[in-house]
Design a protein that fits this description.
227 residues; alpha+beta; 9-stranded mixed β-sheet; two-stranded antiparallel ribbon
């Protein structure tokens, strides 16, 4: 997944910094907690919500996120966390349509998958830096655990950029024409066939003819909803 990387300066552009998996988890949790509650989480909220061993670990990672320009804290005030965009500026949010559900396991039928109806009743609020200027972005709810080693679990939300082309190894929403099913997998083009590779060592890849595959979008971000 495209996550940002580490650099000590708060003014470095987000794409030049690398967040650790724990830092990305904390940042997603804080963002989604604020969206749901309209106020920031406490350190103990973050510890419980992210399954972290101690409040000192939370504080350490919050300090790192401050240095990288993703948030600002007032340590004299409880719950005083303000989200920034990775450059020290306040984040702006964008509503992205949630257009349905996708399998991260064995392929399953998805209603209206051939139309990908974007007149969605549900939306998810994301920050502009998560989109990185991309257009034609939609969201899907993940069903299954085949991408768990890529930090995408059952119930997560993935942001997708609509496209019909991906590079080998990119994670994509793949429409299987004959089966009339869709699935979320890493895509590898191998001559006249395509390998759809799960990120779960207990699961086997799916092989299919290249002309049976239609790419619907690539994953650009994953987030874990609260609740």
């Amino acid at each position: 997944l495209p996550v940002r990387g580490e650099d000590g300066g708060a003014r470095v552009k987000p794409e030049t910094k690398r967040l650790s998996a724990k830092q990305a988890q904390i940042l997603n949790f804080v963002r989604q907690f604020i969206q749901e509650k309209d106020y920031p989480p406490s350190i103990r909220d973050i510890q419980a919500g992210c399954g972290i061993s101690s409040t000192s670990v939370v504080d350490y990672n919050l300090r790192a996120l401050e240095r990288m320009g993703y948030l600002r804290r007032d340590r004299e005030v409880s719950r005083a966390i303000e989200l920034l965009d990775g450059t020290g500026r306040r984040s702006r949010t964008v509503a992205v349509p949630v257009v349905g559900q996708i399998a991260a396991g064995q392929p399953i039928p998805v209603p209206s998958a051939d139309t990908w109806d974007t007149a969605a009743a549900e939306t998810v609020e994301v920050t502009e830096e998560m989109l990185r200027g991309r257009r034609d972005v939609f969201a899907l709810a993940v069903k299954g655990t085949s991408m768990i080693d890529a930090l995408i679990n059952d119930g997560d939300i993935v942001l997708m950029q609509a496209t019909n082309r991906v590079e080998n190894g990119e994670m994509a929403a793949v429409w299987l024409k004959r089966e009339q099913e869709t699935t979320l997998k890493k895509v590898y083009f191998e001559g006249e066939r395509v390998r759809l590779q799960p990120a779960n060592e207990t699961m086997s890849p799916i092989y299919t003819d290249a002309d049976n595959v239609e790419i619907q979008g690539r994953v650009i971000y994953a987030m874990r909803p609260l609740g």
